[in-house]
Amino acid sequence: MNSLKHAGAGMDRRYFLTASAAIGGGLVVSLATGPLGHVAAATPAATAFQPDASVTIGSDGLVSFTLPLVEMGQGTYTSIPMLIAEELEVPLSQVRIVHAPSNPKLFTNPLLGVQATGGSTAVRAAWEPMRKAGASARTMLVAAAARTWNVPPASCRATRATVVHTPTGRVLGYGALAQRAAKEAVPEQVELKAPSQYRLIGTPAKRLDLSGKVNGSAVFGIDVRLPGMKIAAVAACPVFGGKLASVDDTKARAVAGVRQIVKLDDAVAVIADHNGAARKGLAALQIQWDEGANAKFSTEVWAGQLKEASKGRGVSAAKIGNVDAALAAAAVKVQAEYWAPNLAHATLEPMNCTVHWRKTECEVWLGTQALARAQEGVSRVTGLPVDKVIVHNHLIGGGFGRRLDVDYVEQAALIARQVEGPVKVIWSREEDMQHDVYRPFWYDQLSAALDASGKPTAFRHRVIGSSVVARWIPAWMKDGLDPDAVDAAQSPYEFENIDVEYVRHEPPPPLTTGFWRGVGPTHNAFVVEGFIDELANAAKQDPMAFRRALLARQPRVMAVLDQVAQRSGWGTPLPARCGRGVALLAKESWESILAQVVEVQVGNDGLLTIKRITSALDCGQMINPDGVTAQVQGATVFGLTAALYGNITFKDGRVVQSNFHDYQMVRMNEVSPMDISLITNHEKPGGMGEIGTTLVAPALVNAIHAATGVRLRKLPIDTDLLKLT
């Protein structure tokens, strides 16, 4: 998810703090963000205040941190505690994480305007507020120690969860000071450390959630166990928009362990004592579906609709100069069409949700990126007031934007309404693959003008596809423009004349498209960076040099491009049928810059071998460099999977793909060596969750062109086109 800075309009990072005595005698320092222009009074409270983030220091000295952002493998549960620990002067090992409850008033992500984790916003949203919370707690602990010793606070310093009186060497631990510190006035202003003073920020840190994931003690949504809990296996109509016509459950009810059959408008679920019985019972059902109006829908039909929609007028995303005049005067005109397919999320942990319906209230256990949205969804489908829906969040075994949607949560709630006691609904891999919320299917038209010297004078880009933003949060749309779909308008390249336009076309309802780890940029980077390469070829210029000429006033971006060129050996000779391709993304709303070079070898039989992937990254101030490197590695593999294999297709209203045999993942032996260069500076942190997915596809197709002369404008890569004939 990206371009979400638009959602934060009207929000800022100002904060207020309160302090109170925690249960058992400790210090609670609470922080909350508020709307622009609103900062609450900073006064001690008699009881703990539930905030955007709470730092609780117990009498045992342990620091508990209520984190309003979720952990789905990206390292949030390590990097954000590092911000607190840095300013609080405690070892990272002394921090304990607590999942935040659903409360959009208190836990709103200030960059999104909603309680959610996505859009590469976690560290960026936490950067200043979390450090201020830690610094405020430290200041209060020092003040409490100084008052205890009757000495000036300036003569005391905090270090490793203690306060030391420097002249005498006296020491008090945070645990001993916590209750007294809660009585201190909350500082109105705190001085944050300078980068030269950092002890944790910018240093490699071991993941705080790692041991639990290794020893099996970590609890994901799918791991929830409750007394008397039943398991539900579910089958929804394979044709989107279809309904359940009838079901013969005679054989299913005869399966040992099967307790109940639940029917919904568009699905049927088997409730059993355990997963095996539920699956066996589901397989025994004889189901008749009413396939409805979409039974003839297909990918080919959708592609035809996009083509037809492209004939209409769109909404302007960027307009500079006169593109039409520049194209008319061009020495060389270049035109191209690109296609980017629907993609599934294919998370390792399939969709699941546990619900206990009690008539007057409902309790829910799951892993979600949007806790409040899940709570609201259950309220909507059950008719219960929001405050009667209690939601417990857990670790997430892969989100990638899928768990920003709550369709599976609402379905589980509807099933649970008909079941006595708690029931865990687990989608099979097939159900998950064929009822996903897919990345949009996009069709792009591009044209550009070059003058006699090969300099580009005009650039036109028309994006045709559906709008995730319009469905997920309509308030982010402005004048019909989806800022995510047309993030190509944020390109760092400078053209005298620019025209970027968005033509919205939606598939037939209820088929919906959703956020997918990078969303707009994963499509736009492929299109724009592929087309920039085409312009370089038309101008008979080196693709790296061609890009540099368009970045003359972008020194920070240029430095990243130069770094990847140097590290990749750009320009050095390669054997026949080998090539290098480059791609660049400087994402304004992510505040990060990435360049990648992919080196390939293409056999005469079309066999594609990726020899090396080189990345250079400037994401501003790194919190945990190991986490940054891991993000680039994982996201690159994710993007490579999509480039080589990702393709969700429709036939007869159904998704054709069903599991990893026909929606393939990149295997370990297909992943090439990666050289990742991290550029160190102290600019404000940029987002890292998604940028790594965006560039491997365009760099790969550019490398293939360099090796073979074949220009690929459609994903996934068709290696049959690479064979020598």
UniProtKB/TrEMBL annotation:
Residues 215-293 form the Aldehyde oxidase/xanthine dehydrogenase a/b hammerhead domain. Pfam families: MoCoBD_1 (PF02738), MoCoBD_2 (PF20256). GO terms for molecular function: oxidoreductase activity. This is Aldehyde dehydrogenase.
